[in-house]
């Protein structure tokens, strides 16, 4: 009697390995974790000083449009104090608590400014950032329209190398912005189109942390 051929073994299902997280998100997590670890004591001291100030409250939370248009709330230190608040505002350090937003996946270290609403849907393709192209270019010296163009340029062309370059230039941009400014020569530029002056549009752009 002829032997029957052995039955084929059932094929093993292919293992579905989880997709590796994007390099940008890994850099955000590592960078935010390192910065929070290094700045834990100074941030706690600032929070304690603001808590002891006459004005109640340490943080200000503002609703912003995040990735895909999902709303979230940003964190920043209150800056209405006389000395400490002025120093935080001058050196644009009031946004350091937004490192918590980065860890939560609501923001990135580098990206377009977090706005209450986005007039251009392409801004919602990436997470808003604590710093970006406009901050390292000239910060408040730029008119609003050019800031928006830089944000949109970042959305269309960003990559990890650009993020690292922007992060490296951010401390210098902070010091440059905090330096005393010489009186401007010539006519005063027209700021009537600045959204900060129009309550129907977004508030003033978020400063770099």
Describe the fold and architecture.
- The chain has 209 residues and is α+β, with helices and mostly antiparallel strands.
- It has helices at residues 23-52, 84-90, 99-103, 133-137, 144-157, 160-178; strands at residues 59-65, 71-77, 108-110, 129-131.
- The protein has a two-stranded antiparallel sheet with strand order 1-2. Strands 3-4 form a two-stranded parallel ribbon.
- β1 and β2 (71-77) form a beta hairpin.
- It is globular and about 90 Å long.
- The model is unreliable at 183-194 and 196-209 (pLDDT under 50).
Rg, please?
A: 23 Å
> In which range does the helix fraction lie?
25-40%
Q: Which stretches of 5+ consecutive residues score pLDDT under 50?
A: 183-194, 196-209
Tell me, rounded to a whole number, the average pLDDT.
79
Secondary structure tally: strands: 4
Topology:
Blueprint: H1 23-52, E1 59-65, E2 71-77, H2 84-90, H3 99-103, E3 108-110, E4 129-131, H4 133-137, H5 144-157, H6 160-178
Parallel strand pairs: 3-4
Antiparallel strand pairs: 1-2
What are its keywords?
single chain, 209 residues, alpha+beta, two-stranded antiparallel ribbon, two-stranded parallel ribbon, 38% helix, globular, disordered C terminus
């Amino acid at each position: 009697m002829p032997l029957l051929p052995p039955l084929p073994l059932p094929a093993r299902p292919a293992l579905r390995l989880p997709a590796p997280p994007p390099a940008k998100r890994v850099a955000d997590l590592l960078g935010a974790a390192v910065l929070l670890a290094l700045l834990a004591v100074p941030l706690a001291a600032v929070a304690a000083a603001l808590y002891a100030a006459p004005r109640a409250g340490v943080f200000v939370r503002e609703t912003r449009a995040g990735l895909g248009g999902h709303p979230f709330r940003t964190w920043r230190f209150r800056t209405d104090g006389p000395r400490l608040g002025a120093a935080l505002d001058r050196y644009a350090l009031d946004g350091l608590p937004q490192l918590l937003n980065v860890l939560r996946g609501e923001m990135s270290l580098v990206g377009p400014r977090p706005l209450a609403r986005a007039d251009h849907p392409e801004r919602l393709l990436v997470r808003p950032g604590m710093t970006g192209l406009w901050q390292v270019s000239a910060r408040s010296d730029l008119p609003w329209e050019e800031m928006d163009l830089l944000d949109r340029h970042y959305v269309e062309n960003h990559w990890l190398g650009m993020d690292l370059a922007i992060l490296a230039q951010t401390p210098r941009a902070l010091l440059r912005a905090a330096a005393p400014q010489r009186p401007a020569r010539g006519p005063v530029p027209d700021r009537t189109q600045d959204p900060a002056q129009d309550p129907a549009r977004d508030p003033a752009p978020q400063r770099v942390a």
